[in-house]
Amino acid sequence: MLKIYIAGNSKTFETAKRLANILEREGCIITRKWWEYPFSISVKISSDRKWYLHPIVSGNCNSDFKAIEEADIVIAVCNPQIGSKRTRTHFRGANVEIGYALALNKYVFILGKPERCTLYAKCTIVKDLNDLMDNLVDLDTVESHENDNQIENQEYRIGES
Questions:
Q1: Among 68, 63, 65, CA closest to 108
Q2: Is 156 helix (H, G, I), strand (E, B) or coil?
């Protein structure tokens, strides 16, 4: 059973929720459903220091890091495409989540079309849900036959985007 953390933001939470439901139906465990908690952007404090110390902000930070540690895989969700225009997502907090996951040797998938970033070369970029599910099936098959979960042994596949 794969444990998955879904990275996103207030603009991607509907997509994250739908993805979580699909993954749970497939037997995956979502390590934290951050969309069920108050968003940090809801904290209206002008002082940066006080904002970062606010219980909602610090609590979300600590809970997200713990959930990433518990996960086998992190999936970063790009902003939904608007109309037929294919725009690229500029990650903010999700970049920290992606970096932390990579530092912990986790598999990282980016669902959608991110802005180009050299460090995403260590991630698997998938164009859509079907591409993601194909990669997860391949990964789950490998995981069930090997005990070694080292990122150095991962083959990276870039989906069409």
A1: 68
A2: coil
Could you give the CA distance from residue 113 to residue 90 in angstroms, rounded to a whole number? 9
End-to-end CA distance of the chain: 28
- Residues 84-115: tens digit of each pLDDT: 355 666 667 788 999 999 999 999 999 988 88
Q: What secondary structure letter does DSSP report for 72?
A: S
**Whole-number CA gyration radius for the chain:** 16
Rounded Cα gap, residues 2 and 28, in angstroms = 5
| pLDDT of amino acid 82 | 42
CA–CA separation, 93 and 117 (whole Å): 15
Domains annotated for the chain, with CATH where assigned, are 3-35+71-153 (3.40.50)
Under a CB-based contact definition with an 8 Å cutoff, are residues 38 and 31 in contact?
A: no
C-alpha of 86 from chain center: 20
The answer to whether the beta carbons of residues 1 and 29 sit under 8 Å apart is yes
Return the percentage of the chain with pLDDT > 70, whole number.
78
Residue that the structure tokens 């083959």 belong to: 155
Give the residues of the chain that fall short of pLDDT 50.
82-84, 145-157, 160-161
Q: Which residue, chain included where needed, has tokens 């603009």?
A: 11
